[in-house]
Design goal:
heterodimer, A: alpha+beta, two-stranded antiparallel sheet, 2 helices, 43% helix, 20% strand, elongated, B: mainly alpha, 5 helices
Chain lengths: 135, 119
């Protein structure tokens, strides 16, 4: 296997999926981070994937995280006059994070990560037995 | 040396190219707009074995020429045509075929070693 570009491809995908897992973790962790004003509230993050040629072979597409975009959804307004961060009208603002959608995304991301680990392992095994040919 | 290995040296190199394409498909299973690619192994092998083909470039040229976009069995909204499960199955099959080609090459090498050492 010349230059072993499969490792580059599977590695870039694992990297991208782990960025996705990190953003989901961040979104879930901050699902209840309320703020006193709509501008200060946490915004859900989502990575944008793009296919990009790997260094070993530009015609072979790995994955690159083009950007991590923040959600533009309006924050949820909740009436909690007893809250220390509540504004003059007694409202606090919570991020518009849907925990169920985030969990679904989490499962999808971890499955994709596993798939690429499997590809990586198969490629490694094949490369090793090629190296040991004729022994 | 390539004459000695016969068809199997070329086949092994092309099978590796196919594994690379399938790994790129699996890597891009979640990339919007990505089109799944595959290698038509039969036509790639035929064009790589043309008598007028140069040694190293023939395999690259043949694998570039035999690439095609594989349509998805189910349409997806983001334009991605990678089918995760099918891609998995194809990758496993391609890895097995790579091993088969490798076994053929290996038995050739063993035969030559026996001839050289005479044991």
């Amino acid at each position: 296997m010349s230059n072993l570009p499969i490792f580059d491809v599977a590695g870039s995908a694992m990297n991208a999926q782990s960025v996705r897992l990190s953003t989901i973790a961040s979104n879930l962790a901050n699902a209840d981070s309320v703020a006193g004003t709509p501008d200060a509230v946490y915004r859900a993050k989502q990575p944008v994937f793009r296919a990009e040629g790997v260094p070993g072979d530009p015609s072979l597409a790995g994955v690159n995280v083009a950007e991590v975009r923040e959600s533009t959804d309006a924050p949820l307004k909740r009436y909690e006059p007893g809250h220390p961060l509540a504004d003059a009208q007694g409202y606090v603002y919570a991020p518009a994070v849907d925990p169920v959608a985030q969990m679904v995304d989490l499962i999808s991301a971890s499955r994709s990560y596993q798939a690429n680990v499997e590809v990586f392992n198969s490629a490694k095994e094949l490369a090793l037995s090629t190296l040991q040919m004729g022994r | 040396m390539s004459d000695f290995l016969g068809i199997h040296g070329t086949a092994l190199a092309l099978r590796e190219q196919r594994l690379q394409l399938l790994s790129a498909n699996l890597a891009n299973a979640d990339t919007p707009g990505f089109k799944a690619q595959d290698l038509d192994f039969t036509s790639a092998l035929q064009s790589a074995l043309q008598p007028n083909a140069a040694a190293g470039d023939a395999i690259d040229a043949a694998s570039q020429g035999a690439r095609y976009q594989r349509p998805s069995s189910q349409p997806s909204v983001d334009g991605n045509t990678v089918d995760g499960e099918r891609e998995h199955a194809l990758f496993a099959q391609a890895a097995l075929e790579y091993r088969a080609s490798m076994t053929f090459v290996e038995s050739k090498v063993r035969g030559m070693l026996t001839a050289i050492t005479g044991q």
